[in-house]
């Protein structure tokens, strides 16, 4: 078969050029892309409708009626198509606080309610065979993992926690936790979980008892936690301040008394936060170096 020239343009209204075919009558895609960078194929208009040409082994095949019957223009990959998001992979989860009597079968029965399990293991002492009080699980579905991480679990009459192990990244737990200051007794753990759940998956909320005017919130994603630090938020009418939660080993060396809080009629009236985190009042604000009244209760914030 003699070489034939095909009339091709970049767009339907653009000026065309002629491209040579191969001996078998096909048109190499490399020939097209050499003239029109990024082209992934050819199409033409027939009867008012667009038709694409078949591409086999990087060769564009002619239509049944032959190359000369139409004028062709390039097809390009869509750039506005959304890039598929990689599906998150499930990780091994550690189950803390298991009762000594709880075995793998009981753990599997409980967590099967959240989704299919790929692995269940209760750690036991090598000599005695007794449970060490913790174990590991792994789900097949990431959504099941999130459901299990988002709450506490009552297993055989005891509260247990499910977390992502931090053995490969010792600092990740601190990076996922934030300090919530200026809390009031009206804010419950459920209130904090519901509010901060809008920013990312919350894995734990700690509200100290007795009341200490602060709380800790732990997120699944450390980037979510760090993005909130330094911000003020209004939760059910209460203005709270978010800051980094320092690891315990650092708090002992760096803790400092930032002020005094006075209790009047059993309710906290002045909180000991840094100057940029609380409102001073002329009659009740005390500096960190002042002497506290006998009935005053100090509040500590660790930085």
TrEMBL record:
Query: What are the UniProt keywords, alphabetically?
Result: DNA-binding, Mitochondrion, mRNA processing, mRNA splicing, Nucleus, Repeat, Repressor, RNA-binding, Transcription, Transcription regulation
Q: Which PROSITE patterns would you find in this protein's record? A: RRM
Listed under GO biological process in this entry are: mRNA processing; regulation of gene expression; RNA splicing
Would I find RNA-binding among this entry's keywords? yes
Alphabetically, the GO molecular function entries are: double-stranded DNA binding; RNA binding
Q: Which residues does the annotated region (Disordered) include?
A: 282-303
Among CDD domains, the record links this protein to: NTD_TDP-43 (cd19609), RRM1_TDP43 (cd12321), RRM2_TDP43 (cd12322)
List the biased-composition ranges (Low complexity).
Answer: 282-292
Q: What sequence ranges are listed for the domain RRM? A: 91-169, 176-247
GO CC terms: chromatin; mitochondrion; nucleoplasm
List localization entries: Mitochondrion; Nucleus
What PANTHER family does the record tag this protein with? RNA-BINDING (RRM/RBD/RNP MOTIFS) FAMILY PROTEIN, TAR DNA-BINDING PROTEIN 43
Could you identify this protein by its name? TAR DNA-binding protein 43
What species does this protein belong to?
A: Euphydryas editha (Edith's checkerspot)
What lineage is this protein's organism placed in? Eukaryota, Metazoa, Ecdysozoa, Arthropoda, Hexapoda
């Amino acid at each position: 078969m003699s070489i034939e020239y095909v009339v091709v343009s970049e767009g339907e209204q653009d000026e065309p050029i002629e491209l040579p075919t191969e001996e078998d009558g096909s048109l190499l895609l490399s020939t097209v892309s050499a003239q029109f960078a990024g082209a992934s194929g050819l199409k033409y208009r027939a009867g008012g409708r667009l038709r694409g040409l078949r591409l086999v082994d990087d060769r564009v095949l002619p239509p049944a009626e032959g190359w000369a019957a139409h004028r062709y223009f390039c097809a390009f990959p869509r750039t506005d198509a959304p890039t598929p998001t990689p599906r998150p992979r499930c990780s091994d989860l550690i189950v803390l606080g298991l009762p000594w009597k709880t075995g793998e079968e009981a753990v599997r029965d409980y967590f099967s309610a959240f989704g299919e399990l790929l692995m269940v293991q209760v750690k036991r002492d090598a000599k005695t065979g007794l449970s060490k009080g913790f174990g590991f699980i792994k789900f097949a579905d990431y959504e099941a993992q999130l459901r299990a991480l988002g709450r506490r679990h009552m297993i055989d009459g005891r509260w247990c926690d499910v977390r992502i192990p931090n053995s490969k990244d010792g600092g990740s737990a601190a990076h996922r936790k934030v300090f919530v200051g200026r809390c009031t007794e009206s804010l419950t753990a459920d209130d904090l979980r519901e509010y901060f759940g809008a920013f990312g998956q919350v894995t734990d909320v700690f509200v100290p008892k007795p009341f200490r005017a602060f709380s800790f919130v732990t997120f699944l994603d450390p980037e979510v936690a760090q993005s909130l630090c330094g911000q003020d938020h209004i939760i059910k009418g209460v203005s709270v301040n978010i800051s980094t939660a320092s690891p315990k080993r650092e708090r002992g060396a760096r803790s400092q008394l930032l002020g005094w809080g006075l209790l009047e009629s059993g309710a906290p009236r002045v909180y000991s936060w840094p100057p940029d985190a609380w409102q001073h009042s002329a009659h009740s604000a005390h500096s960190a170096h002042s002497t506290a009244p006998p009935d005053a209760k100090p509040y500590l914030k660790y930085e």
